[in-house]
Design a protein that fits this description.
mainly alpha, globular, 7 helices, single chain
Length: about 110
């Protein structure tokens, strides 16, 4: 098991931790990491997407859609990327190579 964890790319850990952060801290007063807020700009579309993803992952689908309509596609895209990276790590294939092969295969069917 530890050998598998060592093969998992940093990107997979990054996306998983990002989703956990949005689930736990997006609206409960956690640390604000938004550069636009730190620069004094009051509106940030990325923050709306982040809060929408947080609500979606906590099960509030209606609240998520009211904040940003692209939260569901964003989570699906991230979940696909994480699955792709984990599958590559399990097979011992470099993640970049495996994902490109899958994208090429999908492109042929469209």
């Amino acid at each position: 098991m530890f050998v598998f964890l060592g093969r998992v790319p940093f990107e997979a850990y990054f996306w998983c931790l990002g989703l956990v952060y949005l689930t736990l801290f997006s609206e409960v007063g956690g640390p604000d990491l938004c550069l636009m807020h730190r620069l004094g700009i009051p509106y940030c579309p990325g923050c709306g997407l982040g809060r929408a993803i947080g609500r979606l992952l906590r099960g509030d689908i209606a609240g998520s859609l009211s904040l940003h309509p692209l939260a569901i596609p964003a989570v699906l895209i991230l979940a696909h990327r994480i699955a792709c990276l984990l599958r590559a790590a399990a097979r011992g294939v470099p993640s970049e190579m495996l994902c490109r092969q899958e994208e090429a295969t999908i492109g042929e069917h469209i």
